[in-house]
Write a structure and sequence with these properties.
Blueprint (H helix, E strand, L loop, with lengths): L1 E5 L5 H10 L6 E4 L7 E5 L4 H8 L8 E9 L5 H11 L10 E5 L2 E2 L6 H16 L2 E2 L6 E8 L2 E7 L20 H10 L9 E4 L6 H9 L4 E6 L2 H13 L6 E5 L14 E7 L9 H18 E11 L2 H11 L2 E8 L8 E7 L1
Parallel strand pairs: 5-7, 5-8, 6-8, 10-11, 10-13, 11-12, 13-14
Antiparallel strand pairs: 1-3, 1-4, 2-3, 4-9, 8-9, 14-16, 15-16
The structure holds S-adenosylmethionine.
Length: 348
């Protein structure tokens, strides 16, 4: 059986490692199949129920798709190719279902849009199985994904994006849980002693929640300068009953030494503001400079920091002049249309 997993482009290695850590029995793994970043194709001899149960626990992925058929689509009549192939695929699960929906992810340039694929594939399914199309809450989600000249057909196993599982409350700026998971992994936090972890731009608390679940012995601190995200983070932490181990306060990341002791944190993991909330371009540089200076003081000697940043040239310039941190790792990822980078930097 072939299963396709989705993640953020750039995080494929984290998925492979997590599969190994969970001892999930697979016979092969291919990262970026169909020349597409953000995908992992695995094959397994295990039954669907067993493997799904294990895969649903992974924190680095968004969706799990059971693959049924992969076929080429032509330039001349791609929708016709989709139609004729959908007549031949054995969608056994649909025989006993009442409703379905076709969902499409599409990469590449095409003469059609995703909706055309859904209509074409969906009408064949209605004709073959006599099911109702239910867009909002279908019993089964059929996937017809297009990767350039290939169509990948199958069933979507999970309804909700797995990376949202921790948060009851979100905002537009909320980070995906899977990216937070990868950042926490990158920080290599020890479990052999009790450690303090900080996210000083915690927003709605995504990193705090992921850190609390990944490191049950750690004490987690979060702060944000603004009232709204601070209140949302509190609600998310309370919702997961983590108030005793996750401490949140409202404070400016440019003034961390006013609120935290020196040499207190084993790591800082944070998704820095990209600049949308700040008025002038120069403000971002000043904020980052002060945040780095303050972080240096509150981190243990030799500690590392993992930060997600969009304008990485600012970081390069600041590190070059301050010489307080050295870059250990850079991972370029994709978040919708944005291409930020995750940096692991170590206190000199
Ligand atoms: C990219 S968002 C972080 C999103 C967060 N990871 C989440 O999942 O919700 C950046 C956050 O930095 C906060 N922020 C902006 N300037 C700040 C400052 N000077 N000090 C502390 N927080 C600040 C914003 O309120 C925003 O919540």
């Amino acid at each position: 059986m072939k299963i396709l997993l989705t993640t953020s482009p750039g995080l494929e290695d984290f998925v492979e490692t997590e599969i190994k850590e969970h001892n999930i029995k697979i016979t092969s793994i291919e990262k970026k199949p169909f020349n597409t970043k953000g995908l992992i194709l695995i094959t397994t001899d295990s039954g669907l129920n067993l493997i799904s149960k294990k895969l649903l626990k992974l924190r680095s992925i968004y969706f799990i798709l059971e693959l049924l058929h992969i076929f080429k689509i032509s330039d001349t009549n791609p929708l016709n190719d989709i139609r004729s192939n959908f007549y031949d695929i054995d969608f056994k699960k649909l025989e006993k279902a009442r409703s379905f929906r076709v969902t499409t992810s599409r990469t590449g340039l095409h003469s059609f849009i995703s909706r055309d694929v859904q209509i074409e594939a969906g009408s064949v399914i209605v004709q073959r199985y006599g099911l109702n199309v239910e867009l909002k809450n279908p019993e089964i989600i059929v996937r017809a994904n297009i990767y350039d000249k290939l169509c990948v057909a199958g069933f979507q196993i999970n309804r909700e994006d797995l990376s949202n599982r921790n948060k009851a409350f979100t905002m537009k700026t909320s980070l995906k849980g899977s990216i937070a998971y990868a950042m926490i992994k990158l920080a290599c936090i020890t479990n052999t002693r009790q450690v303090n972890i900080l996210d000083p731009f915690c927003g709605t608390g995504t990193i705090l929640l992921e850190a609390a679940f990944s490191h049950p012995n750690a004490v987690i601190y979060g702060s944000d300068a603004f009232e709204k995200p601070y209140q949302v983070a509190i609600k998310n932490i309370e919702n997961k009953k983590l108030r005793t181990r996750v401490h949140i306060q409202q404070c400016d990341a440019a003034e961390l030494t006013k609120h935290f002791e020196r040499n207190f944190f084993c790591t800082i993991i944070s998704n820095l503001p990209f600049g949308a909330q700040l008025s002038k371009k120069a403000d971002l540089r000043i904020l980052y400079a002060r945040f780095l200076k303050e972080s240096y003081e509150i981190l243990e000697p030799g500690a590392c920091m993992v930060i997600l940043i969009l304008k990485k040239h600012i970081l390069f310039e600041l590190l070059k002049t301050s010489k307080k941190f050295s870059i250990e790792r850079e991972i370029n990822i994709k978040m919708g249309p944005l291409k930020p980078s995750i940096f692991k930097i170590r206190k000199a």
